[in-house]
Write a structure and sequence with these properties.
337 residues; alpha/beta; D-Maltodextrin-Binding Protein, domain 2; 11 helices; 10 strands; 17% strand
């Protein structure tokens, strides 16, 4: 277990903007007007600040100087479904691989989207336990989260990718990486009974915690770092046993500007862009990004250790038949959009 903290600063939170626009000059929106091209980036809620800085850096390059962007951020599952239902997107980045594969099945993303060196993964993180400054309730382990009287915040796993990572981290830790499914599911059941509210995204859960609700927050390591960077009195613990988070990215087949979209995708894997992600709390996926101290949990595991996303999604998160859906319904939580 490793405890991470920043010096005390006034409590505040930076609210997520669902739709923003980053421009680098006059925009014709479709390739007219002196070669200007506008790309639509659709992403999950947490990497907004990183992308805004990365877009500015990209626009200073020869490949990006005539490219502007629209940006949409929200709960990962909601964003993926919106693109499947017609929301324009040239580049998508989601919390979960399954939110990309939904678009593969819809004919929007190519089947070989994950054929590159990082297998389509753009950023990495780990699931951590956030606490109030000074950890007044002495929360240190997964077991502490299911004690009577401890309020834990985590979003709804049927809208939020972060929530699925969070629950599966606890599940894997308490089930010996899925070897004892009954023990893992019993843990999820006990944990969710201590969750007073389930927001629809990881960023909204962070805002609720910042507003004073809850004793602990399950979240991405990068979200905890974001919270500290933005003035929240929050400590966080990296459990000895936790889950490696891997966030995927892809260019859509339906993009009207595939050359420019691919150029941006390529830039996302440069040392410059990956350093910006690291500055925002994400673990880089390329070598050569230095100057950061990333804890190495001794019992770190991956989604593949739990059986992979296809199996986990079918067994746990099918909104009608999934084991987590059954637990949520007993608690009166919605599992279908």
């Amino acid at each position: 277990m490793r405890v991470r903290r920043l010096g005390a600063i006034a409590a505040a939170v930076v609210a997520t903007t669902t739709m923003v626009t980053a421009c680098g000059g006059n925009d014709a929106g479709g390739g007219d007007g002196g070669g200007k091209v506008q790309l639509a980036l659709v992403a999950y809620s947490t990497p907004q600040a990183a992308f805004e800085d990365i877009i500015k850096a990209f626009q200073k390059t020869p490949e990006g100087k005539n490219i502007t962007f629209t940006q949409s951020y929200g709960a990962s599952g909601d964003q993926s479904r919106a693109v499947a239902n017609g929301l324009k997107a040239d580049i998508v980045e989601f919390s979960l691989e399954t939110d990309i594969t939904r678009l593969v099945k819809a004919g929007i993303v190519a089947e070989d989207w994950n054929s590159g060196p990082t297998e389509g993964i753009l950023t990495k993180s780990v699931v951590v336990i956030g606490t109030r400054k000074g950890n007044p309730k002495g929360i240190k382990t997964w077991d502490d989260l299911v004690k009577p009287g401890v309020e834990v915040l985590t979003p709804n796993p049927f809208t939020s990718g972060a929530a699925r990572w969070n629950l599966l981290a606890g599940y894997g830790a308490k089930s010996d990486k899925g070897a004892d499914q009954a023990a893992g599911l019993a843990y999820i059941d006990a944990l969710l009974k201590n969750v007073p509210v389930q927001d629809d995204s990881g960023r909204k859960a962070l805002q609720t915690f910042a507003g004073g609700k809850g004793d602990a927050l399950l979240t991405y390591e990068n979200e905890a770092i974001f919270a500290q960077q933005n003035g929240q009195d929050l400590d966080y613990i990296v459990p000895d046993s936790t889950l490696l988070i891997e966030n995927p990215v892809a260019v859509t087949k339906t993009s009207a500007h595939p050359k420019e979209a691919q150029a941006f995708l390529k830039f996302l894997y440069t040392k410059e862009a990956q350093t910006i992600f690291a500055q925002n709390g994400y673990r880089p996926v390329i070598d050569g990004v230095t100057g950061f101290d990333w804890p190495n949990p001794p019992q770190l595991f991956t989604i593949r250790d739990l059986g992979g996303w296809d199996k986990i999604t079918a067994d746990f998160f099918d909104p009608k038949t999934g084991k987590v859906a059954e637990i949520e319904r007993k608690l009166g939580v919605a599992t279908e959009k």
